[in-house]
Amino acid sequence: MDRASVVGIVSGFILLLWGMADGGELRIFWDFASVLITIGGTLTATLISYRLGTFLEVMSVAKNAFASQEQDISETINTIVRFADKARREGLLALDADADALDDPFLQKGIRLVVDGTTPELVRNILETELAFIAQRHKTGQSLFETMGAFAPAFGMIGTLIGLIHMLVRLDSPDSIGPGMATALVTTFYGSVLANLVCLPIANKLKSKSAEEIFRKEAIIEGVLSIQAGDNPRIVQEKLMSFVAPKKRAEIRMPYRSREVSGGEIPLDAR
Fold first, then answer.
1. By C-alpha distance, which of 134, 103, 116 is closest to 228?
2. Distance CA 110, CA 123 (A)
3. Is residue 83 a contact partner of residue 99, using CB atoms and an 8 Å limit?
4. Rounded-to-integer distance, Cα 224 and Cα 112, Å
5. Distance between CA 212 and CA 206 in Å, rounded?
6. pTM of the model
């Protein structure tokens, strides 16, 4: 689980409950009709805005906002450098068996294209096209939660207007005005919480994770093309270092600085 997401949403609700309980009883913040108007209205308006298949698919992947971090780029770079070293020693065809063991479908696809003898221009075109469609799918999920974040406060206000209408009908009973106003405002409260503590944060987290994934896949494209070009593994590593923040570069070292051979070791960049 992504600890930042879990800690953020749990602590957010705890702080809200604390603040609500500090001024009185928590039960005054509960109103079932307000829940139906806010949550039901938000979901139905979102369904109108998107196809049912898209809505269900995005809802099922919303858990990605709370999933553990994707594969780190340092691990990806080290894997590509190992592949570059093996390709220089044994040829591109030697990577075919190793590609089967890769957990990353995108990197696996790039290596297979190279092994199959696809031209560099076509390799780049295929991978960049797939990357563009991945980014588009991610944007659909982000926009759906942003849409829900926009609808939730609006339906909260609609619920408040409904509550105010009910209250105004009973103006001849002064004792009911205060409770009626409180109930009316609860719906706006629900809409604000749903938007600002659930929908919009999930949209932002999905956006952040998407940017990280796209960035890592761009590094994979450059690495795959470098392998195909037969670049020295150390050159491949230095080229991919441009995708890493300077303070993290010290963590990304080749898993081996030299290669064992009979009679001793020879540096990778001495071949």
1. 116
2. 7
3. no
4. 10
5. 10
6. 0.78
